[in-house]
Amino acid sequence: MATDRAAKLVAGLRRAHLHLAVAESLTGGQLCATIVEVPGASDVLRGGVCTYAPDTKVEILGVSAELIAERGTVNQEVAQQLAAGARRLFGSEVALATTGVAGPGPAEGHPAGTVYVAIDAPGHQTWTAHQFAGDRQQVRNQSVEAALRLLEDYLAKHYNADDE
């Protein structure tokens, strides 16, 4: 299902003349891989970065070190800063980001399945919070779907480019 949604999103991005970047933590590159499974993804995808360690989030994507020190990496502000950093890094019009706890156990005081996804675009920054159930891979799969839905909602609202 993710690949079908990704194919529609690639087509929508192409029609809207938009480029996409991704920043991933708990999904470990799975979001970017889902997008690149679509033939023609190179027309719209500028790049992706997997910043798993907190220091790489700061050094590569410009996430606030103070924020991470105070609140950890599992929160909406980090997700938003990851997306903004990816958009800057790759020079794209739109960026998606994922952060959270895939499991199997808790991390940073959050239970497994706690996930934040964010989107950053000119004049549009938003995030969603989720508590997914399932094993580690199921949480990661659901996180990819949530990120794709966030992009789908953005395109539908701003470009009417979510179908076909």
UniProtKB/TrEMBL annotation:
<dbReference type="InterPro" id="IPR036653">
    <property type="entry name" value="CinA-like_C"/>
</dbReference>
<feature type="domain" description="CinA C-terminal">
    <location>
        <begin position="5"/>
        <end position="155"/>
    </location>
</feature>
<dbReference type="Pfam" id="PF02464">
    <property type="entry name" value="CinA"/>
</dbReference>
<dbReference type="InterPro" id="IPR008136">
    <property type="entry name" value="CinA_C"/>
</dbReference>
<protein>
    <submittedName>
        <fullName>CinA family protein</fullName>
    </submittedName>
</protein>
